[in-house]
């Protein structure tokens, strides 16, 4: 269900939420993880490279020639090392859940020290390096560490800026970008990670839904084919015994076999389509027929569902009746079977009891009873089985009665 909702569109025609496609593109592309192919590396390099344009101030300072040759060469090497370290951190640590390796802490400390050295010796154009250090902290460190590292780097920027920028007209303008850049990177990491977890949860829900559908189909086919095939087997045996002396009666049994086979085919198609929901009235009639064909005396104390019984609850009781009668016919060797439907205290109880041999003491419940338990739980009911008083087997299936008032047109209404 969640998987379906996530792909739906709202009334305006846009996918919901509106930023979902952009975040999914970032998460599934090269921007939110370590590049695995050359194309992903180029895309991420292009994205990260756009922000390197703000290094224009220190580059211009070097190009102006205001420093000596040795100082310019050393500063150029320092700036190149800073850029390489920054790219390495952003490439290798973006949205990576693993704990940072020790060398990454060393790189961040080296970047901070290099930024402080270049800014203190070459002047205020180099203060912008601290913004990149703050962003690198947000990208490389986990949240519990980056939330303190970003303000710490900004504090170092403020301290050095106060020393090298005496008029104070530049470094205050860098404090907010440093804070916003670092915390924006933290926020993006958290957002992408959340979207990734939501995607994994959606896949899990889809897998569980598929598993539940397979279980539903298995339950339906087991109950449908078990009952139908048991009835076909009984009628075939009966027709075989009648054929030599009573061919007319045998022909009637063969006609019944054809009807049961056709109905079984319809039931299987409905089960596969997900629309199969038996009714108590139909199953009570089928129970009388199946028991009579097997030569078992049937005492049925029920005519149909009580008023106010929800369709899901009625379907669960109908499945229980079908499975119970099938077990009586196939396994019990009983001479009599009693079916009763009672209502007491807002609970509807179906009881099927026989006087057969019953199951062994150490016999485990089969697939049919296990499926019944699952059906009744989904309908808010319970299943209870045990030996009958005369040595046979008793099955009790209970579901809550829908106590909503019934309107004149037959529809249930609620206050």
Automatic annotation (TrEMBL):
One of its GO terms (molecular function) is phosphorelay sensor kinase activity. This is Two-component system, NarL family, sensor histidine kinase DesK. Keywords: Kinase, Membrane, Transferase, Transmembrane, Transmembrane helix, Two-component regulatory system. The lineage of its organism: Bacteria, Bacillati, Actinomycetota, Actinomycetes, Kitasatosporales. GO terms for cellular component: membrane. SUPFAM superfamilies: ATPase domain of HSP90 chaperone/DNA topoisomerase II/histidine kinase (SSF55874). Residues 316-401 form the Histidine kinase/HSP90-like ATPase domain. Residues 213-279 form the Signal transduction histidine kinase subgroup 3 dimerisation and phosphoacceptor domain.
């Amino acid at each position: 269900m969640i998987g379906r909702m996530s792909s739906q569109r709202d009334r305006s025609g846009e996918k919901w939420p509106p930023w979902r496609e952009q975040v999914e593109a970032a998460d599934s592309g090269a921007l939110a993880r370590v590049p695995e192919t050359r194309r992903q590396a180029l895309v991420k390099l292009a994205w990260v490279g756009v922000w390197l344009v703000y290094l224009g101030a220190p580059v211009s300072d070097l190009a102006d020639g205001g420093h000596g040759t040795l100082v310019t060469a050393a500063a150029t090497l320092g700036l190149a090392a800073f850029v390489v370290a920054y790219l390495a951190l952003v490439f290798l640590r973006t949205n990576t859940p693993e704990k940072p390796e020790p060398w990454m802490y060393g790189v961040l400390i080296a970047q901070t020290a290099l930024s402080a050295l270049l800014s203190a010796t070459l002047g205020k154009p180099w203060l912008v390096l601290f913004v990149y250090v703050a962003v690198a902290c947000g990208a490389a460190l986990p949240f519990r560490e980056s939330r303190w590292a970003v303000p710490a780097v900004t504090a170092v920027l403020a301290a050095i800026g106060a020393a090298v920028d005496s008029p104070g007209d530049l470094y205050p303008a860098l404090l907010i970008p440093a804070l916003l850049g670092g915390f924006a990177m933290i926020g993006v990491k958290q957002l992408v990670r959340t979207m990734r977890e939501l995607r994994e949860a959606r896949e899990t829900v889809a897998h569980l839904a598929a598993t539940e559908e397979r279980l539903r189909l298995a339950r339906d086919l087991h109950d449908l084919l078990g009952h139908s095939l048991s009835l076909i087997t009984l009628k075939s045996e009966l027709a075989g015994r009648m054929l030599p002396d009573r061919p007319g009666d045998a022909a009637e049994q063969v006609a019944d076999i054809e009807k049961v086979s056709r109905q079984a085919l319809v039931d299987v198609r409905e089960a596969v389509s997900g629309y199969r929901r038996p009714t108590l009235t139909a199953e009570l009639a089928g129970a009388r027929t199946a028991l009579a064909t097997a030569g078992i005396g049937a005492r049925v104390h029920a005519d149909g569902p009580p008023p106010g019984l929800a369709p899901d609850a009625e379907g669960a009781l109908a499945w229980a009746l079908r499975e119970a009668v099938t077990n009586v016919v196939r396994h019990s060797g009983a001479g009599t079977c009693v079916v009763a439907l009672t209502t007491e205290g807002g609970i509807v109880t179906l009881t099927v009891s026989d006087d057969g041999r019953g199951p062994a003491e150490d016999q485990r419940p089969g697939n049919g009873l296990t499926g019944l338990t699952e059906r009744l739980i989904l309908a808010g009911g319970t299943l209870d089985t045990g030996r009958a008083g005369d040595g046979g087997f008793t099955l009790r299936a209970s579901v809550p009665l829908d106590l909503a008032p019934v309107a004149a047109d037959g529809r249930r209404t609620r206050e």
